């Protein structure tokens, strides 16, 4: 009797594990979409900022402030997404949250007119965080996903 009960229990466990996997495909898709949307909001703000800075526009400081605010909001959103992310997207969610936080920190250093080495270090950290996020997206085969091009030194 014990052997039969153990066999039935093992069969049920194996069935449950193989049918459910580590997460639901719909949950993975929603998580990935939420993360991509937040990342795109921040990337759009960065694009506007780059345009203003390259044009040496009077609006440049406002755009830097905007990027900081968008980064703070999206970091909060990404933190929520990371907390509820299925196992398959956890690293991607964490990397995106880290990237958004690093962007907020870098823009704060710029706006607070921190010394050049502090600002440069904060920006370097944000580039490293973005590369990590891009690698996590590639590992998940997130589509559409376009890694942001390197910033020109013009």
Question: What's this model, at a glance?
Answer:
With 154 residues, this protein is mainly α. Helix content is 79%, strand content 0%.
Report what the structure shows:
By secondary structure, the chain is mainly α. The chain has a single domain (24-140), classed as Four Helix Bundle (Hemerythrin (Met), subunit A). The protein is built from 5 helices and no strands. The chain has helices spanning 2-20, 25-54, 60-84, 90-111, 116-140. Helix 2 (25-54) runs antiparallel to helix 3 (60-84), helix 2 packs parallel to helix 4 (90-111) and helix 4 (90-111) packs antiparallel against helix 5 (116-140). The longest helix is centred in the first third of the chain and has 30 residues, at 25-54. The protein is elongated. The N and C termini lie far apart (78 Å).
Radius of gyration, CA atoms, in whole angstroms: 21 Å
Task: Give the name of the CATH architecture.
Answer: Up-down Bundle
* H/E element sequence: HHHHH
Helicity level, as a percent range? over 70%
